[in-house]
Specification:
Elements: E1 5-10, E2 15-20, E3 38-42, H1 45-55, E4 60-66, H2 70-82, E5 85-90, E6 97-102, E7 108-113, H3 125-133, E8 135-140, H4 150-156, E9 159-163, H5 175-180, E10 183-187, H6 194-204, E11 209-213, E12 219-223, E13 226-230, H7 245-258, H8 263-277, H9 290-302
Helix pairs in contact: 1-7, 7-8, 8-9
Domain Carbohydrate kinase PfkB: 49-285
Organism: Streptomyces yaanensis
Keywords: Kinase, Transferase
Length: 305
Amino acid sequence: MSPDIDVLVLGGAGVDTIVYVPELPLPYADSYMIDSGIRARAGQTGDFVALGLAALGLRTHHLDFLGDDPEGDLVRALHRDRGIALTALPQPAGTKRAVNLVGPDGRRLSLYDTSRGRGDDRFPQDTLRALAGASRHVHVSITQPCADALPVLRAAGVGISTDLHNWDGENPYHEAFAYAADVVFVSAAALTDPEATMRRIAERGRAEVVVATAGADGAYLLSDGELTHVPAVTPPAPVVDSNGAGDSFASAFLFGRLSGEPPRRCAQYGAVAGAYACTVPATGTDAIGREELLARAAGARSGVL
C-alpha cells in the first residue's frame, strides 16, 4: 500500500507578530511610531515548510502542540484555508509566539517566547508511529519536543530531514537533529567554517545530503563527499523580507527529492523558491507553486533568469 502522506511536518507551529522598523539594529528610544502597523499572523518554521510543500502539490500533514487561544486559532485557520491536514495536540502553556523586527532591507530580528511550552511535552508515540507509517518522508523542526521523536521516526524507517537554522556548529542541542536526519539544512550565517561543519554532519550522522544556505551568495551542497556551490537566483520582484526563505528552500528541495531529482537539481529548486519567498511581505503567507517553480528553474538553467 502506498503512503497516504508525502511529507509529515513535525513541530514549528506558531504565530509571529511583525513589526517593520526603520533600521536594524534598532537604536534605543523611548518609543517608535510604526506607521505600517503591528500585525500578528500564523506562520513559524513548520507552518511555512508545510505551506511550501502543499503549494507544490505534495500531500502534507502537520503535527504539533497548539494552545486553546487566539494564536492557536490563527494557526488552525491557516491550515484549514490552505488545505493542509493538521493534528493539533493540546498545549496548556499556549501556542508558540515570536516577535519579528523587520528592517527596510528585509533582514529580521526574531524574539522567541520560550514560555509557551513545557519541558515534559512529548508527542504521543502511537500518534507519531501512525503518522510516520503513513508518510513517505518526515521533516522535523528543531522546536521542543521534536528531538525526543527522532528515535521513533528512525525505527519507523521513514526518511528524515531537518533544518538547523542559524546553528553555530557548537551548540549541542542541534546535534541530535543533525546526526539523525538523511537531509540536513543549515544557515551558513553563524558558521565560521561552513564546509567543515557540513562534513562533520555527514561523517558523524546519517546525512546523505547537507545544504548550507548563504542568502544572496546562494548555497553549498555536500553530496557523495563533493561540495558544490549553488548560485543564488534573481528574485522575480523586489526583495522585501527574508522571513521564510530557508523554509521555502527546504520545501522545494524536498519536492525535488521526492520527485526523484538529483541533489543539484533539488538545490536549484530550493534557490528558486527561496528567492520567491524574499518577495513576500512578512505580514503575508505565500509560497511558489509547482508550475512557476519548474518554469523558473528551467529559465535559470538556460540563462533566461
